[in-house]
Design brief:
Layout (H helix, E strand, L loop, with lengths): L14 H12 L9 H4 L3 H16 L4 H15 L3 H13 L4 H8 L9 H16 L4 H36 L19
């Protein structure tokens, strides 16, 4: 399938697009990465989204390791190959076991999760599958992460679902497959 919103050459950017693209490039991402290519068509939306994403990805109250786990659950739930390809290696580098990543890629509950990982996995899975979270899972999240961390966990799910919607609709091409490529990797490219 053809990428519906491919990269725009920098010389074609409007002033508003340039401002927002340069903010992404100067930030911790260091480049105008895949999710922001289609979003560049709406510079103000892209600016708000990238600032939210910068907080949720790099400074959330649940930390990088658990944020990356939540991102993978969301990428799988939305069959999003770009986010999967970007975040599977990051998740492993941050301490998520290769077996956990492989289980999520195969749509299975990972068999050996640490307690904090189990809370994140269950919370994210319920939120995407049921469009809600059970009282028991909510209570476990509040006990483990507090209200701040639980709200950040919801935010991570929502933010990466937004990016998945944008890239799935735009048919953003996935980068080269990672060692733990999701079975959904063929979709959208």
């Amino acid at each position: 399938m053809t990428d519906r919103l491919p990269p725009l050459p920098p010389e074609a950017w409007t002033d508003a697009q340039r401002v927002q693209a340069e903010a992404v490039i100067r930030g911790p991402r260091g480049a105008l990465i895949a999710p922001f290519v289609p979003l560049l068509r709406s510079p103000e939306l892209m600016g708000h989204a990238q600032r939210m994403g910068e907080y949720l990805r790099y400074r959330s109250a649940i930390g990088l390791r658990l944020s990356e786990l939540a991102i993978l659950v969301t990428a799988h739930a939305w069959s999003q190959p770009v986010e999967w390809a970007i975040h599977a290696p990051i998740a492993q580098r941050e301490g998520i076991a290769a077996e956990t990543i492989a289980a999520i890629a195969n749509g299975q509950r990972p068999p050996a999760l640490a307690d904090d990982e189990a809370v994140v996995y269950d919370f994210c899975t319920e939120l995407h599958r049921d469009k809600s979270v059970s009282d028991a899972t909510w209570a476990r999240a509040i006990e483990r992460f507090g209200e701040h961390g639980t709200v950040d966990l919801i935010g991570i799910n929502g933010y990466y679902a937004l990016l998945a919607m944008v890239m799935n609709a735009a048919r953003t091409a996935a980068p080269q497959p990672s060692p733990q490529s999701s079975p959904a990797s063929g979709r959208g490219s």
